[in-house]
Design brief:
About 20% of the residues lie in helices and about 35% in strands. By secondary structure, it is of the alpha+beta class.
C-alpha cells in the first residue's frame, strides 16, 4: 500500500448520512494511520460523567477544584474503561504518543498532574477509542462516510466543553470549510 495518504493528525468528520450510532455526528482525532490501520479518539461525544468521578475511581485526590467539573468524552466504542488525555504541550509523561505538537497520554501520572493543577495547559479527556483495520478507513472514506481535514487545536481545546455533540460537529466542519447543512440528505428541503 505504498503511496498511502496518512490521516494522522487529521479530523474525521462524520457525514450527515453516517448512521453508525458510535459515530453519528462525530469528530474523531486520528492519532495514528498506517498500512496496519488507524486509531482515533472521538472528541465531541460528552459522557454524563465528570473528571471528578474518574479521579475518584482511580483513587486520585483532586487538589485543583477547577478540574473537577471537566467533562469526559466517549472516545470510541473500544476499551471504554481505558482513559486517554489529548494534550498540549506534549511534555514527558510516562506513556505519550506524540502527534505533531499534540500528545496522547494514557498513563496515571498525567491525571495525577491534572488533579494537582500542574498538568498540561490544554487537555481533552476521553474514555475509549476507535480503530480501523487495514484498508477499512480508506473504504469508508471512498464511500463518503467521512470528511477529513487537518486537526485544529482550537476545536480540540478552545471550544467550550459545554457545547453539544452537534455544535462541536458543526464547528469542526465549518473550520474545515464545510457547511454540514448544505450536505444534509433530508428529503423535502429546497
Amino acid at each position: 500500500m505504498s503511496g498511502m495518504l496518512s490521516l494522522t493528525n487529521q479530523f474525521l468528520i462524520a457525514m450527515p448520512s453516517l448512521a453508525d450510532p458510535n459515530f453519528t455526528q462525530s469528530v474523531t482525532y486520528i492519532c495514528e494511520h498506517t498500512q496496519e490501520g488507524a486509531l482515533g479518539i472521538v472528541i465531541n461525544h460528552p459522557l454524563d460523567i465528570q473528571l471528578s468521578e474518574v479521579l475518584q475511581h482511580m483513587n486520585i485526590e483532586a487538589q485543583a477544584p477547577a478540574v473537577l467539573n471537566r467533562p469526559v468524552f466517549l472516545g470510541g466504542p473500544l476499551q471504554r474503561e481505558r482513559g486517554f488525555v489529548i494534550h498540549s504541550p506534549v511534555g514527558s509523561w510516562d506513556s505519550v504518543l506524540k502527534v505533531a505538537d499534540i500528545g496522547i497520554s494514557s498513563s496515571r501520572d498525567i491525571l495525577e498532574a491534572i488533579a494537582r493543577g500542574n498538568g498540561p495547559k490544554h487537555t481533552l479527556i476521553a474514555l475509549g477509542y476507535a480503530a480501523w483495520g487495514p484498508g477499512q478507513l480508506e473504504k469508508e472514506l471512498a464511500s463518503n462516510d467521512w470528511l477529513n481535514g487537518p486537526a485544529n487545536t482550537s476545536v480540540l481545546f478552545d471550544l467550550p466543553f459545554g457545547l453539544s455533540r452537534e455544535q462541536r460537529w458543526h464547528t469542526a466542519a465549518a473550520l474545515s470549510g464545510v457547511d454540514l447543512n448544505r450536505l444534509s440528505n433530508d428529503v423535502g428541503h429546497a
